[in-house]
Amino acid sequence: MKQKVLEIISKITKITESDLIEQANDNRPWDSLGHVEIVIALENELGLFFETEEIADMTTINKIIEIIERKQS
After folding, report:
1. How far apart are the first and last CA of the chain?
2. Which CATH superfamily is domain 2-72 in?
3. Per-residue pLDDT reduced to its tens digit, 14-68
């Protein structure tokens, strides 16, 4: 699942997956429009729906992965 998330984010941000892994704990390396595009792509690709609070909490790649793992368990 982590790989799928990285693929989606990489496709939208044009940041390589290896660079995303290195920045996994950094504040999101994308702008607000990119954030919206990522959220929509994750919802569509993974069949999830994120609450407003969850979207606001998606500040790093690792947090995005944590939120998705919680929703899928």
Report:
1. 12
2. ACP-like (1.10.1200.10)
3. 999 999 999 888 888 889 999 999 999 999 999 999 999 999 999 999 999 999 9
Compute the distance between CA of residue 24 and CA of residue 52 in angstroms, rounded to an integer.
Answer: 22
For residues 26 and 61, give the distance between their C-alpha atoms in angstroms, rounded to a whole number.
Answer: 8
- Six-digit token pair at 35? 């954030």
Classify burial at 61, counting beta carbons within 10 Å of its beta carbon; exposed 0-12, middle 13-18, buried 19 or more: buried
Domain boundaries, the chain: 2-72
Buried b / exposed e over 10-35, threshold 16 CB at 10 Å, is bebbebeeeebeeeeeeebebeeebb
